[in-house]
Design brief:
The protein has 291 residues and is α/β, with parallel strands linked by helices. 45% of the residues lie in helices and 16% in strands. The chain is built from nine helices and eleven strands. Helix 5 (139-167) links the parallel strand 8 (120-123) and strand 9. The radius of gyration is 23 Å and the shape is globular. GO terms for molecular function: oxidoreductase activity, acting on NAD(P)H, oxygen as acceptor.
Length: 291
């Protein structure tokens, strides 16, 4: 092959230089990186916002963010474009995840952006309400909790599955210690998170080409913790409520970036070998994914 042909394959870096009667040229491979496209729910604040930012900054992902607050999503988009100088890396859908049209819009936006692939879902949106005993809370409130924490996730997975099968993508379920431990006054939340854990295990068995991982993020300094401290006293046992207050006053709550980095990393490069498993964010087997 002549030099012209080689230049079609390689990028020239340096000039010909005579050495011992021979001529050499330094050649550098052109690198073409295909960015992963992720859909992240609850992306406007807390852990979801951290996951979105870290996925874009640290793991070279494109992100479709989904949340109810248009203002918060707009602010996040401006921050990414004007302060991080990363243009056309974040798009968003404003809507309630319990409405199927929101899910449809998110999947459609992902499919018409950045080449049309959906490489991962980060299913983070969730509510802790109703806080209160089983006897004192209404079935209506329980159904709302399941709509947000469970059925919205089933809906998004179902709509995204055809694309995820093509990309052999990843599904990250943001779980909780409440998935495996019962807490007084948290009946609805515990039940939804336990159901979500089993959903992940089942999906991993049914969709062998996908990588499905559940992660409990620990006790993180988010608005959910504010709600627990302000509204949880009546529904929780005193010792349990006092523990959450103490975590705040002692400044020992996790920063969202700590579990957020692990989840963002897993959304882009979780190995197939861990599919179907449930991890704490600081599990030693996930050490390589920590910040």
């Amino acid at each position: 092959m002549d030099w012209q042909g080689l230049n079609m394959m390689f990028e020239r870096n340096g000039d010909f230089a005579p050495q011992h009667g021979k001529r050499y040229i330094r050649l550098q491979f052109r690198q073409h990186t295909t960015l992963a496209t992720l859909i992240i729910t609850g992306a406007s604040r807390g852990i979801g916002k951290s996951i979105a930012l870290l996925a874009i900054q640290n793991f070279n992902a494109n992100v479709i963010g989904v949340a109810r607050s248009q203002e918060a999503l707009q602010q996040l988009s401006r921050h990414i474009e004007t302060e991080l100088h990363l243009k056309d890396r974040f798009k968003y859908v404003v809507g309630d995840v319990t409405e199927e049209s929101t899910v449809e819009d998110a999947v459609a936006l992902a499919q018409k952006s950045w080449g049309g692939s959906i490489d991962g879902l980060v299913l983070n949106a969730g509510v802790i309400d109703p806080l209160g005993t089983i006897a004192s809370t209404s079935v209506k409130d329980w159904k709302q909790a399941f709509d947000v924490n469970f059925f919205s996730i089933v809906t998004l997975i179902q709509h995204a599955l055809p694309s995820l099968r093509q990309s052999k993508g990843r599904v990250l379920l943001v779980s909780s210690g409440a998935a495996v431990n019962a807490y007084h006054g948290w009946g609805a939340y515990c039940a939804t998170k336990a159901a979500l854990k089993m959903l992940g295990e089942t999906l991993a068995k049914e969709e062998a080409d996908l990588t499905v991982v559940s992660v409990r993020p620990g006790v993180v300094d988010t608005e959910m913790q504010v709600l627990i401290r302000e509204k949880g006293k009546d529904g929780m046992v005193p010792e349990q409520h006092a523990r959450f207050v103490e975590l705040k006053t002692s400044n020992t709550l996790l920063h969202p970036d700590q579990p957020g980095h692990v989840i963002a990393s897993l959304a882009v490069k979780a190995p197939k070998s861990i599919s179907g498993q449930f991890f704490s964010w600081d599990d030693e087997s996930l050490h390589a994914h920590r910040k």
